[in-house]
Write a structure and sequence with these properties.
By secondary structure, the protein is α/β, with parallel strands linked by helices. It has 13 helices and 27 strands. Strand 26 and strand 27 form a beta hairpin. Helix 11 crosses helix 12. The longest helix is centred in the middle third of the chain and has 16 residues. Its cofactor is FAD.
Length: 477
């Protein structure tokens, strides 16, 4: 049997995950021959954890997904970036002048930072930096100093993570956001006000509802209301746009991304797409979970392991990765309290930086915002993922004092059910971690290598460490 030639364009989180999953299903390479075309010269890394690199809490090497010889060990041909696709000849032209043939092409080109229409603002302008890659992080770190004023353009998820990282380095950070409240895609105004109060206590200032109008090199930003935000550096984190240049040039159908069906096929059935570059009706862009769910489906399809596999969308759970802030937003969290078809409960405690909102339909969790409520967030996310009925005591649920079926909250890893999901990004349960431990993964790093737990958004790292400590004590041998 001749191995099918699969060419993956992009070696970011989506492309790297697909290559891994293809090899998991075909370890000896008899079914598929894999070529990955890298858009960056670095090995694949976890883009989600860039804010930790910016903050100085993680080193660049700590967020790598693969080591230097991963591709060779797994029979993956790692080549330079793609520059053009010839669908008729089924070839891809590479940056080094060579070409590669394919039987199946997969686009995993990701997204590019969006530059707002601000007079004088450009990524190649002195004093302006994007926040998307390791190179961006290193450029920002080299350009700032403790006590220096920095403006972050964008009050969404990534903008706030960049702002907190810079504040942690001693910079005087001002977030400029054109909307009247932070993270408007995930938070309602009440939750956003509490979040702003929490972040202000960490040294971050906000200019909300005042779009930037002009960039003043070396001086900062002039806002639409005529006011001025001083800044030695402007960090742009105002959103991303799908990187569809190759797809458009090749004549593929594009609309806010490369259009794909439930089999992740584009308008050319020999070309697939996944991750931030793809547009599927069940997907929210900019999150890692959809890309990794898509990689599982596509690996099943391309290796023939499960021909009926289809991607139907991913449950949306957004977590803010900011030191000292525990925030999770999931599902249709923006549902109004007056919606007659929903049960909506809210608790707010601004003085202590806590806000909890729960949305239920037909006794199931369909949305939530949990700020400063980690126990409630863990339980409610579990209910949301499984689609199981919520406990009758809604108040206990919001306070983090109830589990499905009325059980008490687990106070230690020993009390956590074996079926509990520890790492949502990689669908790793407590039982999977215990199994990996007993197979020889005898420390945190070993558990991470064996299960991939904490390599997604990183928010489960403390739980993984807690389980490792518990196992060390319970099963020292």
């Amino acid at each position: 049997m001749t191995a099918r030639r699969i060419v993956v364009v992009g070696y970011g989180m989506a492309g790297a995950r697909l290559a891994e999953r293809l090899r998991d299903r075909d370890p000896d390479g008899t079914r598929v021959a894999i070529t990955v075309l890298a858009g960056e010269e670095r090995p694949a890394y976890n883009r989600v954890l860039l804010s930790a690199v910016l903050a100085g809490s993680m080193a660049v090497d700590a967020i790598r997904l693969h080591d230097d010889d991963w591709a060779e060990r797994h029979r993956v041909d790692l080549r330079p970036a793609a520059v053009a696709i010839d669908r008729a000849a089924r070839t891809v032209a590479l940056a080094d002048g060579s070409t590669v043939d394919y039987d199946v092409l997969v686009l995993a080109t990701g997204a590019r930072p969006w530059l707002p229409p601000v007079e004088g603002l450009a990524f190649d302008e002195q004093g302006v930096a994007a926040f998307r890659t390791i190179d961006d992080c290193e450029r920002i770190i080299a350009a700032v100093a403790p006590g220096a004023p920095v403006a972050v353009l964008g009050g969404g998820l990534l903008g706030l993570e960049a702002a907190r990282g810079l504040a942690g380095r001693g910079c005087l950070v001002t977030v400029v956001h054109p909307v009247g409240h932070l993270m408007e895609r995930q938070l309602d105004p009440a939750a956003a006000r509490v979040l702003a109060t929490v972040l202000e206590a960490q040294g971050i200032e906000f200019r909300l509802g005042a779009p930037a109008a002009r960039y003043l090199p070396g001086d900062g930003l002039k806002l639409a209301d005529g006011s001025h935000v001083p800044a030695d550096l402007v960090v742009v984190s105002a959103g991303v746009r799908a990187d569809t240049g190759l797809a458009e040039a090749a004549g593929l159908a594009v609309d806010r991304g490369v259009l794909v069906d439930d089999a992740l096929r584009t308008s050319d059935p020999r070309v697939h797409a996944l991750g931030d570059c793809a547009h599927h009706p069940g997907t929210v862009s900019g999150l890692v979970q959809p890309a990794w769910d898509q990689a599982e489906v596509l690996a099943d399809l391309l290796t023939g392991v499960r021909p009926a596999a289809r991607y139907r969308g991913s449950p949306v759970v957004t977590r803010l990765k900011v030191r000292g802030v525990d925030l999770a937003a999931l599902g249709d969290a923006l549902t109004d309290v007056h919606d007659p078809d929903a049960e909506v409960l809210c608790l707010t405690d601004p003085a202590r930086g806590r806000y909890a909102k729960l949305v239920l339909r037909a006794d199931r969790v369909t949305g939530a915002i949990l700020l400063g409520a980690p126990d409630a967030a863990a339980t409610i996310t579990q209910l949301y993922d499984r689609g199981t009925p919520a406990p009758a005591d809604r108040l206990a649920l919001l306070l983090g004092r109830a589990l499905p079926g009325g059980a008490a909250v687990a106070s230690s890893p020993a009390d956590l059910p074996a079926t509990a999901t520890v790492c949502r990004c990689n669908s790793v349960t407590k039982a999977a971690l215990v199994t990996a431990w007993r197979a020889g993964a005898s420390d945190v790093d070993g558990l991470v290598r064996a299960t991939k737990a904490s390599t997604g958004c990183g928010t489960c790292r403390d739980t993984v460490c807690g389980i490792a400590d518990w196992l060390t004590a319970a099963e020292p041998n």
